């Protein structure tokens, strides 16, 4: 499994998920493909808060938490393998400015770079990175969150099939020489993979990825258009900056801390997940009126309160889970947060429950 497989599932009621934007296109596609009866449509919409007015507004935008909840609803109401047919609909037309930038790029290399640099603008639950070798290029998918195997696999299928569709739109033919790596065991619907993926598919990879021959990179895009390419790149760059600054950046940090576990992440780990230098991350958090230290402190405070509600954990175990090598440092931090020691806080809660 990949590097994040030991990280906890992120609760969909995490407030930060309701701050991050998500295009309504994917939501509409899933509703159209799976909501084939009034009852099924109602099941897909359950709890999302997405209104008919939003669905009818071509310029509307929803929150990431709403989109992910729809995925969870779909997984609960559908048979295994449901996501393949839906993911196939996340084609070039569903990708908005990302798709237009790729097909209008001068070469496949430029199109690949667009996908790696801006893919998360359309789908903030993952991050894409390029790995280069003498003979191949890879787009590696780094999950930002975990929501349970059924949803995680569906999300990855959507990402991989979307990336394949974008690459093939530029290539002009099926990418049969490509390789697709999945970071989970072969599913029961593996026969469907042979129908929809055009390259060799492998399972139980360390990280999910799509690999293409390096020789393809110099191929000119059949619909290359410098004016359109630069215009759409400007739009994507604006959306990227919006996602990587202000309240959206703070929300992304909170989501990554929640996905990482009780101790959160170091500054270096967080900067790597966000694809920023440490200096840039510090500056942007400062511009947003906060800091790495404040956000990590808030995350640990919330986790400390939650963990201490569980009598199975001693105060020393809670300290360890939160990343404190010295329990005394945890006690000092806890007193600063709650005005009491962990033991006294737990005893007080016990008294109040009587």
What brief labels describe this structure?
354 residues, alpha+beta, two-stranded antiparallel sheet, disordered N terminus
CATH fold name of the largest domain, please? H-NOX domain
- Beta-strand portion reads 5-15%
Q: What is the domain tally? A: 2
Strand order of the largest sheet: 3-4-7-5-6
Average of the residue pLDDT scores: 90
CATH architecture of the largest domain: Alpha-Beta Complex
Number of strands: 7
Could you estimate the helical fraction of the residues in percent? 55-70%
The biggest beta sheet reads: 5 strands, mixed
By secondary-structure content and strand pairing, the structural class works out as alpha+beta
Q: What is the 3D shape? A: globular
**For the terminal residues, how far apart are their CA atoms?**
45 Å
CATH class placement of the largest domain = Alpha Beta
What's the alpha carbon Rg, rounded to whole Å? 22 Å
Runs in which pLDDT lies below 50 for 5 or more consecutive residues are 1-5
Q: What string, H for helix and E for strand, traces the elements in order?
A: EHHHEHHHHEEHEHEEHHHHHHHH
Describe the structure in your own words:
The chain has 354 residues and is an alpha+beta fold. The chain folds into two domains: 15-237, Alpha-Beta Complex (H-NOX domain), CATH 3.90.1520; 244-353, Homeodomain-like (Arc Repressor Mutant, subunit A, Orthogonal Bundle). The protein has helices at 24-34, 38-45, 52-56, 64-77, 82-87, 96-103, 108-122, 149-171, 190-196, 226-243, 246-260, 267-274, 278-287, 292-308, 315-321, 327-338, 342-353, and strands at residues 21-23, 61-63, 126-132, 136-143, 179-181, 200-202, 209-213. The chain is globular. 38% of the residues are buried.
């Amino acid at each position: 499994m990949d590097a994040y497989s030991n990280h906890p599932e992120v609760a969909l009621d995490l407030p930060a998920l309701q701050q991050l934007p998500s295009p309504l296109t994917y939501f509409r596609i899933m509703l159209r493909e799976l909501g084939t009866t009034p009852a099924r449509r109602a099941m897909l919409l359950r709890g999302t808060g997405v209104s008919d007015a939003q669905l009818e507004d071509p310029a509307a935008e929803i929150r990431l938490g709403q989109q992910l909840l729809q995925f969870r609803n779909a997984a609960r109401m559908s048979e295994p393998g449901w996501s393949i047919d839906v993911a196939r609909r996340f084609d070039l037309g569903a990708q908005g400015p990302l798709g237009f930038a790729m097909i209008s790029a001068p070469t496949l290399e430029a199109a690949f770079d667009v996908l790696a640099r801006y893919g998360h603008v359309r789908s903030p639950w993952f991050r894409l990175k390029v790995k280069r070798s003498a003979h191949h290029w890879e787009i590696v998918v780094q999950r930002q969150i975990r929501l349970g195997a059924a949803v995680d696999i569906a999300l990855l299928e959507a990402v991989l099939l979307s990336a394949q569709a974008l690459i093939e739109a530029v290539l002009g033919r099926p990418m049969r020489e490509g390789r697709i790596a999945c970071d989970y065991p072969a599913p029961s619907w593996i026969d469907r993979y042979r129908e929809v993926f055009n390259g060799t598919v492998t399972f139980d990879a360390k990280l999910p990825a799509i690999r293409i021959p390096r020789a393809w990179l110099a191929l000119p895009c059949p619909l290359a258009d410098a004016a359109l390419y630069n215009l759409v790149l400007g739009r994507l760059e604006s959306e990227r900056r919006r996602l990587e600054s202000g309240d959206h950046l703070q929300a992304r940090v909170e989501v990554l801390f929640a996905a990482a576990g009780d101790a959160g992440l170091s500054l270096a780990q967080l900067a790597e997940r966000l694809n920023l230098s440490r200096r840039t991350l510090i500056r942007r958090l400062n511009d947003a009126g906060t800091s790495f230290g404040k956000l990590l402190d808030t995350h640990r405070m919330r986790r400390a309160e939650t963990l201490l509600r569980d009598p199975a954990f001693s105060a020393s175990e809670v300290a360890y889970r939160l990343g404190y090598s010295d329990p005394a440092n945890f006690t000092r931090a806890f007193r600063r947060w709650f005005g009491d020691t962990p033991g006294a806080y737990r005893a007080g809660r016990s008294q109040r429950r009587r």
